[in-house]
């Protein structure tokens, strides 16, 4: 996943685009080819949960420009809201655009904010399944998911689109030139008339 291309392609729409990518990856992971029902501004999770092997799984997409630690409260609130509206929810797949930082405490792997998030989820009887860039790298490299990678991390354009853009630009410059040319000719004619009157 090329995050620089993603940022350029979806400038000021990164959150929306990341939610769409998360949705496609979640559906792919569950071999869902028809999509999932969702409500407008659905609370806590992006779509209705999907059932697999007797467990109900939902997902939440979080695109942050600042650290995950700074957004711990937002994530915990989402978990609580998800469970309040979906009592049968067992697992929450949490898609985040950043890797989690390893703990700086000696002998500990998980950082405090990760432990707090997982504890809050456990209190709600939800298991967290983290999905971070290291997961996306593999998921997006799978042949079945190539179309997802193409949608979100390529800037290629067809020759036809480039030609159309070139022709449109050429037309615009021609119109501007024509306007300036006629304006200059009219000024010359006016000058000529004024000189002849003298």
Give an account of the 3D structure.
- The chain has seven helices and four strands.
- By secondary structure, the chain is an alpha/beta fold.
- The N and C termini lie far apart (74 Å).
Describe the SSE topology.
Layout: H1 3-9, H2 14-29, E1 50-52, E2 55-62, H3 72-85, E3 91-96, H4 112-123, E4 127-131, H5 133-141, H6 146-153, H7 159-197
Parallel strand pairs: 2-3, 3-4
Antiparallel strand pairs: 1-2
Discrete helix count: 7
Give the CA-CA distance, first to last residue: 74 Å
Biggest sheet: strands side by side, in what order? 1-2-3-4
Count of distinct strands: 4
Report the principal-axis shape: elongated
Kindly report the average pLDDT value.
87
Output the helix-strand order: HHEEHEHEHHH
Given the helix and strand composition, which structural class is it? alpha/beta
Portion of residues within helices: 40-55%
Beta-sheet strand percentage? 5-15%
Described by strand count, sense and barrel closure, the largest sheet is: 4 strands, mixed
- CA-based gyration radius: 27 Å
Low-confidence stretches: none
Please supply descriptive tags for the structure shown above.
four-stranded mixed β-sheet; 11% strand; 198 residues; alpha/beta
Brief sketch in words of this structure:
The protein is of the alpha/beta class and about 200 residues long. It is built from 7 helices and 4 strands; from the N terminus they run ααββαβαβααα.
